[in-house]
Design goal:
The chain is an alpha+beta fold. Among the domains are: 84-166, RRM (RNA recognition motif) domain (Alpha-Beta Plaits, 2-Layer Sandwich); 170-254, RNA-binding S4 domain (Structural Genomics Hypothetical 15.5 Kd Protein In mrcA-pckA Intergenic Region, Chain A, Roll), CATH 3.10.290. The protein is 24% helix and 31% strand. The chain has 6 helices and 15 strands. The protein has helices at residues 9-24, 38-48, 100-108, 137-143, 181-189, 193-201, and strands at residues 30-32, 54-59, 69-74, 84-90, 117-123, 127-133, 146-147, 150-151, 153-157, 170-176, 205-207, 210-211, 224-227, 231-241, 247-254. The protein has a 6-stranded antiparallel beta sheet. A hairpin with a 5-residue loop joins strand 14 (231-241) and strand 15. The longest helix has 16 residues, at 9-24.
Length: 255
């Protein structure tokens, strides 16, 4: 196995600051980070993996997010997903195209730090979405009216309302013995339940953006499961039982 690359000085400083934040948390408090890039998220999750007193959720506004926010809380309580909203930016069709760089520059020009802004997604029909910390959403939507020479309109919305959230996905139908994590993932990704157990124990599985370490966790209709590097599945419909007592299940699989 290849050794992990040594930390740069910048990474060391960031990790030390992050670990101090964890040490300062009292049992009743929670801590919401700024947006983390993939390397910061990797370091943060490694540090949290050593803290059995803490749990966390990860969310970036959409399933394939590159930049994500952590909500960290006591392992004794249930935590919410991080407070992220999307700024839906629209402009007149036929205007000059607006690029990712254009949007980022315009948002930062409002006085925001880079870590208060997540992914920027250029969408069809002369529109784009900017993921931001919820506390900044109204400010941005009220003040962002120009990107370069193009006039724009902005609305703060729940990221789940974005067109990208309407991806049809791939239908998967089958039967499972139960709604346990290992059974559902085995159906959704076409792998054995024993392999799923290994993946869960390796920290590669999340349920509703929260890491899980038990393959026997029971799920319900509407729950989403993600497998790192493989995509995610959503329990779209739980049907009746077969004659042998298995449950009919309909999943939506997203890459």
């Amino acid at each position: 196995m290849a050794k992990a690359s040594p930390l740069s000085e910048t990474e060391k400083q960031w990790l030390q600051h992050f670990q101090r934040k964890l040490d300062e948390m009292a049992g009743h408090q929670e801590h919401v980070t700024a947006f983390l890039d993939p390397r910061q998220l990797e370091l943060a999750e490694a540090a949290l993996g050593k803290r059995h007193d803490l749990s966390y959720t990860v969310y970036g506004g959409h399933p394939a997010a590159e930049r994500n926010v952590l909500n960290i809380f006591s392992a004794q309580r249930q935590g919410d997903i991080p407070p992220i909203e999307a700024i839906l930016v629209t402009w007149k069709r036929g205007e000059n195209d607006i690029t990712h760089r254009d949007l980022l520059g315009a948002v930062l020009a409002l006085g925001l730090r880079r870590d208060q802004v997540g992914d920027i997604l250029v969408l069809p029909d002369s529109s784009a979405a900017v993921m931001v910390i919820k506390a900044k959403a109204d400010y941005i939507s009220q003040n962002l009216d120009q990107v370069g020479r193009v006039s724009v309109s902005c609305t703060a919305i729940d990221p789940e309302q974005l067109p990208l959230a309407e991806d049809d996905g791939k239908d998967i139908k089958g039967t499972v013995a139960s709604l346990r994590v290992d059974a559902v993932l085995a159906l959704g990704f076409g792998i054995s339940r024993s392999k799923v157990v290994t993946l869960v124990k390796g920290g590669l599985v999340r349920v509703n953006w929260r890491p899980v370490n038990s393959p026997s966790l029971n799920l319900k209709e509407g729950d989403q499961l993600s497998l790192k590097g493989r995509g995610r599945v959503k329990i779209a419909e739980v049907g009746g039982e077969t004659r042998k007592g298995r449950m009919h299940l309909k999943l939506k699989k997203y890459s």
